[in-house]
């Protein structure tokens, strides 16, 4: 708990102090005893390091001035101690004039002993050794021949030729002094801890803090306040209205009312200021101003939003992830790069599967907003009411089932970054109106709330429909169309970039072969021709799907035309690709039901080791059709 240092004025007192300390049995406390007679000797010592000092009489009074911040506890001299000393004086000496000399605490009430014992006493208060010596000389001159007191007083009196009686401290006084010393040390430690906490709050707070007294004089300024406002180092004690009238603390002192969230210009910068009165017993005794630069608040808000978007609201793809080297895709990438240099809204159009979100993420990552969040939402995937609450958020109690405290919308989450509205053509007319307000005013209002929240968001929209035709048909708002369609990026379909088909297929085929722990497969010329002739209605997304099927289903190390025919999507597309592809394999793969004669069926079964699934795949038909034809030709019966 701590260390107690006891200053004892006579050696015999050590044993009593030690015994009393042990009897109290308080673990964690350390006892240090110093024998000293005279304050000057104690003051010269520099090795006293303790939590609390216990002393008595003049020694205690002097130590309170000498020990600085270390508390000093008086070891009281009780009335019983003085009575015992006076009684001893009467027994030992034929006393005529007796004086009691000591500190204020020691002699308090001593005069009343005259009435109790029918004796005349001179009572003299002394504070320091010099005072004591002169006082005792004056007592001797006045006829006093016996001095009752502590060590210092009796030593001086003996040196001056007077008789003396020493006032000994009783055990009960030692007991109470030790208990009080422990209490004082505990309280001091608690105060130190609170003081350090308060100092840490002041020193490390990012907010400036200034407090004033009832007269408006500054009595506390933290480091942040001095840095923000440029206050001089000698500001404490000076009127706040002369140094910082913008803070308005005198107004709060006069009104006794808090003023929160005010914006003031101080030292050339805008500050968000809170002013609060300090009221005790219905009386304003001071005021506190806390303030922070608006720019710092905005920066902190950005960091918070950055942490939020790191939970998944992030664009991971860049222009380097867009595969292809055809002139069409190169032109599109070049245009998109130019769009990334500005903050205008972008409309990306293109057939399904052309990579609209990849381009949206790439534009975001190449823009000045790359460190902000990227929030993507599919407008066709959610019903209208749910999409509205997701986009704009809602206040607590806005509707049944609303989360306590409300919820932040996607536009708020995207603040400082980009929001990607995929399939924007599917937004209802009602939501189109709310979206228009965001684009015009750059602010949103949560559902069920009346508070306007400013947002800094770039919008990238995407659709596979013709928004212009929808606008002319009254299905899409004209004003919203012209707000969204500022920069238009048209993505080419895969059939218009045939140079990229085979490189893309090889890339994805290798990817899925390695992912499924299979050898990487090659593509023979007939299969390549078939892939290039296919019209790819699903574009790159369909090509990727086909590559995954081939990685799993194709049995040999080389993918041929039959393998391609087995996995192409759609009977019409398959036949179109097959019929335009030369080679016997393609002819076999393109055979229709009439052409599937017995010889072709047997050949396909033989090549597939009589595995009906692989045989059907080689023929480009379903297993049902294969079973029907085998039954027709009585194969296997």
TrEMBL record:
Residues 194-236 form the PAS domain. Keywords: ATP-binding, DNA-binding, Nucleotide-binding, Transcription, Transcription regulation. Residues 322-552 form the Sigma-54 factor interaction domain. SMART domains: AAA, PAS. It comes from the Bacteria. The keyword Nucleotide-binding applies. One of its GO terms (molecular function) is sequence-specific DNA binding. It holds the Pfam family AAA_lid_14. GO terms for biological process: regulation of DNA-templated transcription. CDD domains: AAA (cd00009). NCBIfam families: sensory_box (TIGR00229). This is PAS domain S-box-containing protein.
């Amino acid at each position: 708990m701590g260390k107690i240092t006891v200053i004892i004025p006579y050696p015999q007192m050590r044993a009593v102090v030690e015994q009393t300390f042990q009897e109290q049995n308080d673990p964690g406390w350390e006892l240090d005893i110093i024998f000293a007679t005279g304050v000057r000797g104690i003051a010269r010592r520099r090795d006293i390091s303790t939590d609390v000092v216990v002393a008595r009489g003049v020694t205690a009074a002097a130590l309170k001035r000498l020990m600085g911040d270390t508390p000093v506890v008086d070891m009281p001299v009780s009335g019983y101690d003085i009575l015992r000393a006076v009684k001893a004086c009467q027994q030992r000496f034929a006393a005529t004039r007796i004086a009691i000399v000591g500190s204020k605490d020691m002699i308090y009430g001593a005069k009343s002993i005259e009435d109790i014992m029918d004796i005349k006493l001179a009572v003299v208060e002394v504070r320091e050794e010099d005072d004591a010596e002169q006082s005792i000389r004056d007592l001797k001159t006045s006829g006093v021949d016996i001095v009752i007191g502590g060590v210092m007083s009796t030593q001086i009196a003996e040196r001056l030729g007077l008789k003396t009686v020493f006032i000994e401290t009783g055990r009960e006084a030692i007991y109470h002094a030790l208990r009080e010393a422990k209490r004082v040390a505990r309280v001091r430690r608690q105060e130190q801890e609170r003081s350090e906490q308060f100092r840490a709050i002041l020193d490390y707070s990012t907010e400036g803090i200034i407090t004033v007294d009832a007269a408006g004089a500054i009595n506390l300024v933290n480091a942040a306040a001095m840095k923000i406002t440029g206050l001089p180092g000698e500001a404490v004690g000076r009127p706040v209205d002369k140094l910082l009238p913008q803070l308005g603390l005198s107004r709060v002192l006069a009104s006794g009312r808090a003023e929160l969230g005010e914006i003031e210009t101080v030292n050339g910068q805008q500050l968000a200021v809170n002013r609060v009165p300090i009221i005790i017993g219905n009386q304003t005794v001071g005021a506190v101003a806390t303030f922070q630069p608006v720019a710092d608040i905005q920066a902190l808000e950005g960091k918070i939003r950055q942490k939020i978007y790191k939970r998944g609201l992030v664009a991971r793809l860049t222009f380097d992830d867009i595969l292809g080297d055809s002139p069409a895709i190169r032109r599109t990438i070049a245009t998109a790069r130019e769009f990334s240099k500005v903050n205008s809204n972008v409309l990306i159009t293109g057939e399904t599967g052309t990579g609209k979100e990849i381009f949206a993420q790439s534009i975001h990552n190449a823009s000045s907003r790359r460190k902000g969040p990227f929030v993507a939402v599919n407008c066709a995937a959610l019903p209208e009411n749910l999409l509205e609450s997701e986009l704009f958020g809602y206040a607590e109690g806005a509707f049944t089932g609303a989360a306590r405290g409300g919820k932040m919308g996607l536009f708020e989450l995207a603040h400082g970054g980009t929001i990607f509205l995929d399939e924007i053509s599917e937004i209802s007319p009602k939501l189109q109106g709310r979206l228009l307000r965001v684009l015009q005013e750059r602010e949103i209002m949560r559902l069920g709330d009346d508070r306007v929240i400013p947002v800094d968001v770039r919008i990238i929209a995407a659709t596979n429909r013709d928004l212009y035709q929808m606008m002319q048909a009254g299905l899409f708002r004209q004003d919203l169309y012209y707000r969204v369609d500022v920069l238009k990026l048209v993505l080419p379909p895969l059939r218009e970039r045939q140079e990229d088909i085979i490189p893309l297929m090889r890339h994805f085929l290798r990817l899925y072969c390695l992912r499924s722990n299979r050898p990487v497969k090659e593509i023979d010329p007939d299969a390549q021709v078939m892939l290039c002739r296919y019209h790819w209605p699903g574009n790159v997304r369909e090509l990727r799907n086909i590559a995954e099927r081939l990685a799993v289903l194709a049995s040999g190390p080389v993918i041929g035309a039959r393998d391609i025919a087995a996995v192409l999507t759609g009977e019409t597309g398959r036949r179109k690709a097959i019929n335009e592809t030369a080679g016997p394999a393609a002819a076999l793969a393109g055979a229709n039901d009439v052409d599937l004669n017995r010889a072709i069926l047997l050949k396909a079964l033989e090549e597939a080791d009589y595995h009906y699934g692989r045989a059907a795949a080689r023929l480009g038909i379903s297993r049902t059709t294969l079973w029907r034809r085998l039954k027709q030709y009585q194969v296997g019966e």
